[in-house]
């Protein structure tokens, strides 16, 4: 832009010798744009009214009008124009007189931030031409009538994502006349998975509807043997959510010029989603006490969290992995990056990235909790975002792992990704970002090691199949589960799997080979462990089975340890110890049942009702140890949701939530939450207590806004019982 008379404030800018202007990393700030930019002295008789002048600009920004319909942005609850890059949109300009192409000259200007610059993509002048070129900025007149013209405008397929300010500039002999600043003409430009030239282009319409436009999803939790699911409201189209997501990039201080690149956006977002080291969105807490905040299990969706952060600018308490992943998914879908939430069952949290989790055993074969630092999470949630990777060799585009849960630092901050799923599968972990960490989460081996008195370590048992047994996401177009384990790893034991592992080791993933150590397992006896499915508050039994495949008789000194664990596999307390001697006859199987009473576990139970059993057996005749570990989860009762009245957009209806307390105790400090995108905003209600066996009923009146298939999601939280959910699909009719 040509020089303008600087205001006093501009003169006081803290200049430094390194850059001519301060960093431009806020989409919110603005600069002053002069309405009359003179070329020199203005003659006395000059009257701007004698020239072409803009009287009004019509943006076609209503949800039912052409722009939002064609750009798939009609669901955003936002009065301004929202379009996707690399695709034409329409505006209409009204002048004070008919436009004369022979003599009149005007152009459009799109500006972003405090210091717009053309070479940074934050100042975009668009002359009016005769044709639009695909994927490049341009404008052409499509219709002229009386004093108005209709323009078709094409944005660049690589342009910055965010909110632009629009000005129309008219050339006169003595200077440039501009329209006044008008926030009603602000234009949001988002990523465009429908545009082949966009880095996030996705070619399947059903997948675009799921991964960009679906505003509810499913979180899979529980464990491998007992997969559980719950709904999560992403709410990426709700009021103010788009502005909150743009604010996250300001908070992360991402230069405006870098905001057209999905790789950069994912990398900075994975850091700002968690509060570690940058006061980001969510404070994590894994210790079962959630004072002055909301328990992670109580959230039903992302909207409350994002809006609270956007208004308070302080981390929202509290989250665990599925909360970080749910909010991250909202952020990505809101900006137009296709995204899905992933659950990895038996996920390794390996503290030194050596593809090996060490569980140390003491003399009796019990796990030594003092020495054991690694842990196996029952499940861990992260996200995948879809994009090309021009920074990597060909073939590594597509789904990329990004993870907002703070686990380990990457380049000095708690963040993870984007890491190519394809690179992880083939062991090419040399490609940025954080591929070795994700590779270890899905591929580590478990080593059971005994510490001898003299400090030497003896490996007793190695489990190569426990970690990353099942990796899932929600299916496209339904609420079912899709198994995507094969996208991350080859089949256990296949030649390809060996090759991928050797490749990963070659690229620097540390793996200690078993040859370096003395390891001779007992191969002629197998041990298996099963737990009966059980409902919270009831007794249940577990079964240990031995198969003696040899011709020898053996006796096995067997030790069972039952622990109450956080879903991260970290033990809170041991509630069951049981040891017995098992006689193993030649070539036969024998089973042993152990009863677990509710009185043994109820007092210490944590919110996800997770148990972790270690079973170790020493074969007395050979001195060898067999080891197995398994997580089990209790069935938690659900909330019942029903509706009353007509389900019509714009008419009042009732939602009723019911819950019966199944425990042998009174529930204290009960909170219910209910939400449904397009039907009702999140409502919470506190209930003092629910005595045992009694039923709570809560009725909420609401007026649904949007017709179509919608989902209601409810959660109940109390001191003794958490992770109680309910959901209901409702079909809202058109009025």
TrEMBL record:
Gene3D superfamilies assigned: Immunoglobulins (2.60.40.10), Transglutaminase-like (3.90.260.10)
Cofactor: how bound: Binds 1 Ca(2+) ion per subunit.
GO molecular function: metal ion binding; protein-glutamine gamma-glutamyltransferase activity
Transmembrane segments: none
The keyword Acyltransferase belongs to this UniProt entry's keyword annotation: yes
InterPro entries hit by this protein: Ig-like_fold (IPR013783), Ig_E-set (IPR014756), Papain-like_cys_pep_sf (IPR038765), Transglutaminase (IPR050779), Transglutaminase-like (IPR002931), Transglutaminase-like_sf (IPR036985), Transglutaminase_animal (IPR023608), Transglutaminase_AS (IPR013808)
Function noted in UniProt: Factor XIII is activated by thrombin and calcium ion to a transglutaminase that catalyzes the formation of gamma-glutamyl-epsilon-lysine cross-links between fibrin chains, thus stabilizing the fibrin clot. Also cross-link alpha-2-plasmin inhibitor, or fibronectin, to the alpha chains of fibrin.
Record-stated family: Belongs to the transglutaminase superfamily. Transglutaminase family.
Protein name: Coagulation factor XIII A chain
Taxonomic source organism: Platysteira castanea
Taxonomic classification: Eukaryota, Metazoa, Chordata, Craniata, Vertebrata
């Amino acid at each position: 832009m040509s020089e303008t008379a600087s205001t006093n404030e501009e003169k006081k800018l803290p200049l430094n010798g390194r850059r001519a202007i301060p960093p431009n990393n806020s989409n919110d700030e603005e600069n002053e744009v002069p309405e009359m930019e003179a070329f020199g002295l203005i003659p006395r008789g000059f009257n701007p009214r004698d020239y072409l002048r803009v009287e009004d600009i019509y943006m076609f920004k209503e949800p039912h009008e052409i722009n939002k319909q064609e750009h798939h942005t009609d669901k955003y609850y936002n009065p301004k124009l929202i379009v996707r890059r690399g695709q034409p949109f329409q505006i209409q300009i009204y002048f004070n007189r008919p436009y004369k192409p022979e003599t009149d000259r005007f152009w459009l200007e799109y500006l972003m931030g405090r210091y717009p610059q053309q070479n940074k993509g934050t100042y975009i002048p668009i002359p009016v031409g005769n044709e639009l070129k695909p994927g490049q900025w341009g404008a052409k007149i499509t219709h002229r009538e009386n004093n108005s013209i209709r323009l078709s405008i094409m944005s660049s397929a690589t342009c910055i994502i965010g909110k632009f300010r629009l000005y129309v500039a008219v050339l006169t002999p003595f200077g440039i006349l501009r329209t006044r600043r008008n926030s009603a003409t602000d234009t949001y430009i988002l990523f465009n998975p429908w545009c082949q030239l966009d880095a996030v282009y996705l070619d399947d319409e059903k997948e675009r509807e799921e991964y960009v436009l679906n505003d509810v999803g499913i979180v899979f939790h529980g464990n491998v043997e007992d997969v559980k699911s719950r709904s999560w409201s992403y709410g990426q189209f709700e009021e103010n959510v788009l502005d909150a997501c743009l604010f996250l990039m300001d908070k992360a201080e991402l230069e405006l010029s870098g905001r057209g690149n999905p790789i950069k956006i994912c990398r900075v977002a994975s850091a700002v989603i968690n509060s570690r080291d940058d006061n980001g969105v969510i404070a994590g807490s894994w210790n079962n006490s959630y004072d002055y905040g909301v328990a992670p299990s109580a959230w039903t969706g992302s909207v409350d969290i994002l809006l609270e952060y956007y208004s308070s600018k302080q981390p929202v308490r509290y989250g665990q992995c599925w909360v970080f992943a749910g909010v991250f998914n909202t952020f990505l879908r809101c900006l137009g990056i296709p995204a899905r939430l992933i659950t990895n069952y038996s996920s390794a949290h390996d503290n030194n990235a050596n593809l090996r989790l060490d569980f140390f055993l003491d003399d009796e074969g019990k796990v030594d909790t003092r020495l054991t630092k690694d842990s196996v999470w029952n499940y861990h949630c992260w996200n995948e975002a879809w994009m090309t990777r021009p920074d990597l060799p060909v073939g590594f585009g597509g789904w990329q792992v990004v993870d907002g849960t703070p686990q380990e630092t990457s380049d000095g901050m708690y963040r993870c990704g984007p890491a190519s799923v394809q690179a992880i599968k083939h062991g090419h972990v040399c490609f940025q970002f954080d591929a070795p960490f994700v590779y270890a989460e899905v591929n580590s081996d478990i080593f059971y090691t005994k510490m001898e008195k003299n400090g030497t370590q003896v490996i007793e048992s190695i489990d190569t199949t426990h970690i990353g047994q099942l990796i899932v996401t929600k299916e496209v177009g339904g609420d079912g589960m899709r198994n995507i384990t094969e996208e991350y790893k080859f089949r256990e034991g296949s030649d390809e799997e060996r090759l991928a592992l050797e490749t990963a080791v070659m690229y620097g993933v540390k793996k200690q080979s078993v040859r370096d150590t003395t390891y001779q397992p007992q191969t002629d006896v197998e041990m298996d462990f099963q737990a009966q499915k059980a409902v919270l508050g009831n007794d249940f039994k577990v079964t240990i089975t031995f198969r003696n495949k040899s011709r020898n008789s053996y006796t096995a000194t067997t030790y069972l340890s039952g622990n109450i664990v956080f879903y991260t596999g970290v033990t809170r307390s041991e509630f069951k110890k049981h040891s017995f001697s098992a006689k193993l006859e030649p070539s036969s199987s024998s089973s042993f049942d152990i009863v677990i009473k509710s009185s043994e576990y109820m007092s210490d139970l944590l919110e996800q009702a997770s148990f972790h059993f270690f079973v170790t057996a020493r074969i007395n005749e050979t001195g060898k140890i067999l080891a197995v570990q398994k997580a089990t989860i209790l069935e938690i009762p659900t909330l019942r949701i029903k509706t009353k009245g007509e389900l019509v957009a714009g008419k009042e209806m009732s939602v009723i939530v019911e819950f019966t307390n199944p425990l042998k105790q009174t529930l204290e400090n009960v909170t219910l939450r209910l939400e449904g995108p397009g039907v009702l905003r999140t409502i919470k209600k506190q209930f003092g207590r629910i005595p045992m066996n009694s039923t709570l009923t809560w009725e909420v009146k609401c007026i649904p806004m949007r017709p179509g298939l919608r989902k209601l999601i409810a959660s109940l939280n109390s001191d003794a019982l958490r992770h109680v959910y309910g959901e209901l699909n409702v079909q809202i009719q058109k009025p």
